Amino acid sequence: MIRHRILEQLAAALHKAAPNLNNLAVDESVLSGFKLERPRNPEHGDYAVNVSFLARHTKMAPPKIAEVISACLEGVRPEDISVIGGYLNFKITEAMLAEALAAIIHVEKTGLNDSQADKRILLEYVSANPTGPLHIGHGRWAALGDAIVRILRHNGAFVTAEFYINDAGVQMGNITTSVYWRAVELLKAKGALPKSVEVPDVLPYPGEYVADVSALYLSDESREQRFIAAHANHADALADEALQAELKAFSKTVLLEAQQALLGNLRVHFENWISEKEYLYDRDVIGGTLERLSAQGYTYEAEDALWFKSTEFGDEKDRVLRKSDGSFTYLTPDIAYHDDKFNRAERYNCILNIWGADHHGYIPRMRGAIEALGHDPNQFEVLLGQLVNLIVDGERTRMGKRRKMLTLQDVVDEVGVDATRFWMVSKSADSALDFDVDLAASASSENPVFYVQYAHARCCSILRNAVEPAPNVDTGEMTAPFVQADALKSFEAGLTPHALALLFDSLTEPRDQAVLKALVLLLDGFEDTVRDAARLRAPHFITQYLQDVSSQFHSFYGVCRILTPEPALTQARLMLIRAIQKTLAQGLDLLGVSAPEKM
RNA sequence: GCCUCAGUAGCUCAGUUGGAUAGAGCAACCGCCUUCUAAGCGGUAGGUCACAGGUUCGAAUCCUGUCUGGGGUACCA
Fold this sequence. Notes:
alpha/beta; Gyrase A, domain 2; Rossmann fold; 4 domains; 5-stranded parallel beta sheet; 4-stranded antiparallel beta sheet; RNA-binding
């Protein structure tokens, strides 16, 4: 990590220079003011740092400060530093580049670090109702969440991914009602029930998939018989509790399994699937949480309901916990659930949730409940994602409004897993995402994932061609490979920075050298990108980075031939290709996107 | 009304602890395949960073206000 080394040298120089800087007190907050950046103008060196922020502390002019610090820098050749205004400009030597490249070759996984090693994170995301197919918005949370899990782990965090199944509450009743009436419709159609039975015009869940669930239920003859019998015994067979429970359980299982299958297809993995009904209601943990809340004096009864004094924690109004009909609101089991998260044996110190922006107003009351229960609200973190707009025929459509809505499965079928995942995380979660189905499905060149995958495949192709005999263009005879596979392998295993000299020396055009240097510095900076992506929960840093590397590689490919008649030179250049290929593969893996060896 | 996200090139978006001349992809235009994959490369053009103030040596970035758009503001989840 060249950047880190420069920052260390700067810190040492600053300590040494302090007496000449009006006895500046050098501490962590001062040192963190050094921001190393890559200047656009090559005359400003390869890395630059602005020291103007020290002007206030030292009461000195920035150019003077830069002069003083540069005089104290050690381990840097004077010709590699320049001072322009308040800037210190560093020139990166080929020796440093070679060292960085060799380090990438030797490390098993690029970008691996321990910046989040003290974090024990429970990440909950997607958490859909098992009342229908996942929609495109769920796809964003799925891609985002799984990428964040992978990125956090690459930074050393202990992470558990969890899916909360909302299988209790009124929505489950709604899907049960809907499945019931679709079944009645189907039975009427085949004459098993009289035509006189009336089906409501509007069902809570109008989607066509509901009828599929009903048909699947009725496909078992004994179930169909039970359904008809229950119908004969009750005016409204939904009053038959046994049937209702069976329909509910059946619907949940079928719909949940469909969600799980799709998420599996998307390579989105959860360690835990927590059922609201089984984990919270059946084990009766909600009551215990409510008692503790009440014992602390944070609840009261009014208008036949039980309320939580969330206003004491900054919420705009108090919230109902138990409705006047005796049932809980959504909030109540969710409070118990979050209470449980804090109490797990894993001793998590970060309870992280990904929620859609439509749940924004829900945060203060949940945070309040967490605090009321004696947990540290600072360990509760919500990553809010703006919603996804579906664009069909160039028009925005609101999800769920249409009877036949486009599901996540439809999208994946059209554009594939890789493109879906890459697209979904390629923009900041703070921005609403436009998902243009026609565009994503038709225009492959418009989708950056192919650009990155192609760069990876191109690296693999070069590495393959290097060690395989190929037919001569003119004679058709098989010629010897550019390098021997065994020789290349041992060259790579025993690679020293010195052995890379040919890679840098063989390029004579300054422009080509600049491309090579930019490429190596980019590869060297992968760890920084991985750290930032974890710290800010921002996988789009990775997509951006991968596109940068790919672009820089394609440029380099254009100006420098890798496979040459000189084995020594070829080997050295192949090490660069290996480093690029490793980094691209690692970056794609952090996003859960495949890195094809051929395209 | 209040809370919140956004407003940057024709379009979609990067730009996170404030730093040198604001970037990328797509679209447009001009070039480049006898050679390791043209799903590629080089070049041209394209900007009042919504607007107005403020803080600062310095603002797309921080503060205040205004405008526009998304989301929320349930005893739904």
